[in-house]
Amino acid sequence: MNQFKQLQKRYRALLISQIGLAIVALVVVLVLQKHMIKNLQLDRALQLVAVLMSVVGGFAGARIYNRKVFQLRDSNFSAQEKMNAFAKVSVVFWTFLAVPALVCVICYIITANFAFMGLFAVLVFVMGSQNPFKSRVVLLLKLSKEETAQLDGSGQI
Questions:
Q1: pLDDT tens digits, 26-55
Q2: What's the rounded Cα separation, in Å, for the pair 4 and 1?
């Protein structure tokens, strides 16, 4: 079974579901905007929460991800073990980005403030840059051609 494609499917599913949720939120807010009550204090408090969650989540997730990838790169694990660990740490990192993005969407629904959707777009862009392409995974984990062939059956990078 192609391990690279499985990881790519997980990544795409999470990214597409986030974008789909944002589209639904935009439609809901645009339809119900006339009935929404503006609360400036709540808006500012939610902005602070969303920004803090985004910054802390992004940096903490990146730190965990980078530390684990460098450990895997220098380890003597088999290709399968490296790939399994890489998939796990990737999902953890994506979660550290997806949760603040979800909070931004929820805050947008509550306040109808497009600033939350802007922050959401930044988080989705950062997550988009973390696409687990086969060549990227091979490079990050320092996989040989034989190990790559073991994981995908072709050996082509």
A1: 999 999 888 778 888 999 999 999 999 999
A2: 9
